[in-house]
Amino acid sequence: MRYQQKQGFILLMVLVITTTLFLIVTAWLGATISKNNLFNSQNTANSSQYLAENALQYTVFKISTDEDWLESFTTTADWQETLDDENVFVEGQSWQVKIQNTDLGQADIFATSTVKIGNKNYRKAITAKITNSEDGLIVLNYD
Amino acid sequence: MANNIKNKNGFTLVEIISFIGLTTLLLFLTYNILVLTSRSSSNGSAITESLENGKIFLDKITTDLQQTTNVVTILPITAEEKVSEIVFQDPNSLDVIKYSRYYLDETTINKQTIVYYFPDQPEVFVNLNARDDEDNPPLSLIENEEIIANNISELGFYGNKLINVDLKLSKNNKVTHLFTSVFTRNDQ
Prior knowledge:
The complex is a heterodimer of chains A (143) and B (188). By secondary structure, chain A is α+β, with helices and mostly antiparallel strands. Chain A has 3 helices and 5 strands. Chain A has one domain. In chain A, helix 2 (9-65) packs across helix 3 (67-75). Chain B is elongated, with a radius of gyration of 31 Å.
């Protein structure tokens, strides 16, 4: 009877060590996975931010260089237009822009960028205002 | 008597071998997992550091290019022909004419501030396209040079008016790719 009680000691010890190690490794893995997700989020957030800014810059470029757009922007108070581009810089990156005049030579721009990684789409939306300054330059102001 | 001692003290050979075997296996597995996660964490940190580096450069050059009125470098239209340096008039220097040159030097992006002058009037900085009475170009002087970003593996500029900046950063074999575009008021 006494022998039987002592013979399970090793098994118990191995189980305790195994459980402890398992818990430590699980916690470590969990922390690393969270950290990696954070790094990936930062990476994607940066890419989508620059992509959305690219959309805004392209819109200003378009209004400044396209005569039809410039005329509509400066002469039609309720003018609105949309723009989009796919596979910007690399495959899977796209953006859409909506321009809505709020007055003659003044508009709100809504830019949405999409970065596709695997099966997931990451989106970033930014808004800005553009105005036709007195010296004829199109000025972009971020909200 | 001998049987009594054997049963009451110590462990059997099978127990000891099992314990050592299991513990070794567990330690081996744990060590490998720790090494893998540590490497993964280190790669993540490298990406974050690269991103910060790239952001500093992109924010700086975006601001400069938006404000400058004279981009000297004639940039190619397509990404295939992109160039790794750009020169433009420094928009932050209002009183005197200065030029900024961003270029890739192995793995760093450097910024030079350059001024141009004629030998007979070294205190007067002129436009880089200026010519003296004998049609001689001005001399150049690098006033300042600083490192803007490091761990850069590729830098490219292309596009007319809408200048595209293509940047690749690498650290610990992890490559980060950043792009942006700047609409510039290039009057030239």
